[in-house]
Specification:
242 residues, alpha/beta, seven-stranded mixed sheet, 7 strands, globular
């Protein structure tokens, strides 16, 4: 019975993620997987080597949350052959297309909203959450789980969308200002697009960077890096040693 409930909850979570990504599983998977190289370019790996790699020792676990088909997990496993890389993904349309990973890597299908995974306390050196946190109805449970899994001195990185003014969001979506043109008032397609844009605005504007920092600090993390980049932020926090 418990397993059935878990499966039902995971299915519901997967459907919520799919709606968040426009309802087209194949398109969502394609957009995310094809943008991987762009999002993990030379600058990204320079950041990783400076801020995350120093926390890693041989034998530590490396964890990627919201892992998609396992591209970053695959890279971690190849870069760190003396470590095990674990990815966690909730969406079935991602998990079903998972990569064939190296022997020191695995991909799990699980919902992250409750912050419960079969991971030993203090066994993880680094945790990545890339474009995940804004999808969660509340991130506190996950943040508490991350603190539990990390070893002292372990680091957690968030790269994500953060809240912005409606003005900048609409200017980004409608750079030609067509949203304000009166002749579109009776256009059905225009109305549907507006509803979709405002729905996405709510979904992609859950948290400001200061909200994330507040929650992480209250749990006990030390803030290492806070780098804003337009609509995005990159945060690195550390579980204090001792």
């Amino acid at each position: 019975m418990e397993q059935m409930e878990q499966n039902g909850h995971l299915h519901a979570r997967g459907q919520q993620i799919l709606r968040h990504h426009g309802g087209d599983a194949e398109h969502a998977r394609k957009m995310i997987t094809q943008s991987y190289e762009r999002r993990h370019d030379v600058d990204f790996w320079e950041f990783w080597n400076a801020q995350m790699a120093p926390a890693i020792s041989a034998g530590d676990l490396l964890l990627d949350l919201g892992a998609g088909i396992g591209q970053f997990v695959n890279d971690l496993a190849l870069r760190y052959p003396d470590n095990k890389a674990i990815g966690v993904e909730a969406a079935n349309y991602m998990y079903a297309a998972k990569l064939t990973l190296p022997e020191n890597a695995t991909l799990l299908q699980a919902d992250l909203t409750d912050g419960i995974l079969p991971i030993e306390e203090g066994s993880v050196a680094v945790i990545m959450a890339n474009m995940l946190i804004h999808e969660l109805p509340q991130p506190v449970s996950l943040f508490r789980g991350i603190y539990h899994w990390l070893k002292p001195g372990g680091r957690f990185c968030i790269i994500d969308l953060v809240r912005q003014p409606l003005e900048s969001y609409l200017n980004h979506k409608f750079p030609e200002g067509e949203i304000w043109q009166a002749e579109n008032a009776n256009n059905k397609n225009d109305k549907e697009k507006l509803e979709e844009v405002f729905e996405h605005f709510l979904e992609h504007n859950r948290y400001h960077a200061t909200d994330l920092i507040f929650m992480l600090a209250k749990i006990g993390f030390k803030i290492i890096e806070n780098t804003p980049n337009g609509r995005f932020v990159r945060l690195v926090v550390e579980k204090p040693a001792g």
